[in-house]
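FAQ

Q: What does a record look like?
A: Structure on top, sequence underneath. For example:
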């Protein structure tokens, strides 16, 4: 069975994750040893296809770190590929309307509450535990919507009222761009929008997550009421450590 990220969300812990963008499965295997609570494999802005996701899931299985998969688009086949492969849930980007949210939720759940097709192969241990998997899948899998557009911000309360939304993820970069502040994620208008999102999420009882660029910002978001955060990404940790090492040697 897949790790139950939803159960972790119900705890009082502040969960820390990062993004998987590099295709070598040794990367998530390595990072899993650092103590991350979750990973998000990026199928929107990185070339992480379903086959790559499967290798990442195999690599992290022993560590039990949940992997959510950000689909490239809010499309049924992309959502089902991720869930049938064994992802603990999906992240749906570019959500703008109630219809967008209803579509995502429906394809994350089996009938009668949803529209997901029934073919749980790898995720049920290749058919060995199909019945047990399907019995708990609707409640265990996580449907995460991304709040990263002006339209989503303006209809936020309606989006969060859709049954089946388990959590949300704030995308500060796209949100800043949508608000007219491209590349300026620390602009006061962007900060105000982020504060509004977490406030409304708390009011609706929806755990909110957010991407952060540093540990300092992650701690700030925890104080704001966010329940989880992603910090940097796999390539970001490599770049930061490599640049720091070279700089220290050359300048030290």
């Amino acid at each position: 069975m897949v790790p139950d990220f939803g159960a972790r969300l119900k705890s009082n812990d502040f969960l820390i994750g990062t993004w998987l963008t590099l295709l070598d499965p040794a990367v998530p295997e390595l990072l899993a040893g650092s103590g991350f609570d979750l990973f998000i494999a990026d199928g929107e802005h990185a070339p992480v296809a379903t086959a790559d996701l499967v290798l990442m899931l195999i690599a992290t299985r022993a560590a039990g770190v949940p992997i959510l998969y950000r689909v490239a688009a809010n499309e049924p086949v992309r959502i089902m590929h991720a869930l049938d492969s064994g992802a603990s849930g999906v992240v749906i980007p570019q959500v703008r309307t109630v219809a967008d949210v209803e579509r995502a939720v429906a394809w994350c759940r089996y009938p009668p509450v949803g529209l997901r097709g029934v073919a749980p192969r790898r995720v049920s241990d290749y058919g060995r535990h199909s019945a047990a998997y399907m019995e708990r899948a609707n409640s265990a899998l996580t449907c995460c919507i991304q709040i990263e557009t002006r339209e989503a911000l303006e209809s936020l309360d309606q989006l969060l009222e859709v049954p089946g939304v388990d959590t949300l993820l704030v995308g500060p970069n796209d949100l800043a761009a949508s608000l007219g502040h491209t590349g300026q994620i620390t602009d006061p208008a962007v900060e105000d929008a982020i504060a509004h999102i977490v406030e409304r999420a708390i009011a609706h009882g929806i755990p909110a997550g957010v991407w952060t660029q540093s540990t300092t910002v992650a701690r700030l978001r925890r104080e704001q009421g966010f329940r989880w955060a992603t910090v940097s990404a796999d390539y970001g940790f490599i770049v930061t450590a490599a640049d720091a090492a070279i700089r220290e040697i050359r300048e030290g």
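Q: Is there anything notable about this one?
A: The first helix runs from residue 5 to 9.
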